[in-house]
Amino acid sequence: MRIAQFDRLVDDLTDEVLRRLETRPVPGAWMRDPLNDTSYRHEKIDAIAILSEAPDRLGTLPFSTAIETSSREGEIAATIASIIDHTLLKPDALPEEIDNLCEEAKQYSFFSVCVNPIFVRRAVDNLAGSGVVTCAVVGFPLGATLSDVKAMEARRAIEEGAGEIDMVLPIGLLRSGAIDAVKQDISEVVRACPGTVGVKVIMETCLLDDAQKVAACRAAQEAGASFVKTSTGFSSGGATVEDIRLMRREVGSRLGVKASGGIRDFETAQKMVCSGASRLGTSASVAIASGVETSGNES
User: Which of 14, 74, 120, 270 is 20 to 30 A from 91 in CA distance terms?
Assistant: First the structure.
């Protein structure tokens, strides 16, 4: 192909892309979700309607600012609830507290409950038939477990019924620049999970500089993870708007972004979503849905 022909082809492709971007979807048409390769029904240009159809995906679509400007607070709160991982990871959690966690998740229609592996089976039994997913943490909260042990932990959690895995990457190796080792660590967990089980990679952003956060996002993507996640909720800091924007910028529409740590009220949750978060991890889920400020650790 000659240079002139190539230039003409590039111009034609550019014109076609711009034309499609300018074309508003026809009401009732099917739209494509680029993040999980599925379609959803589009009724109108409405962030709330779209999120209810594809609840993990708002942060990847050009509609997130609609939440910020909408006056329908009740619907927005319900929509945000639908992307929350309702979390209880404290070491002294009691079995009956897990039962209560699951009841709250069903009552408020949270996306999932997030628990330590020892409680996965209990959560799965509690949530049977509800549509609420059980998420298990792996290598939590330090990320310093051997990779094959993390993979085994993930496999066992899945055998118990976990539908998602939140793993902590090896933070010290990331900070030292051993990116290949970090990628291998994530890959082993991803390989341990069937395609139906998404893997979220916790990078503990409060311990990293921006270059390390970018490197973690790239490692997670190349290793086949589904999400990047800010924090365990057990370190010196949690999610920030700046970190969510950086992570979303880096992963684009290819991965989900989970904000966790320090999300204790509706206003903070809303800011995280509008900055690009497509999932929220918090132990203050009920408070967020109720508009009450609280404290506690969040995954």
Answer: 270
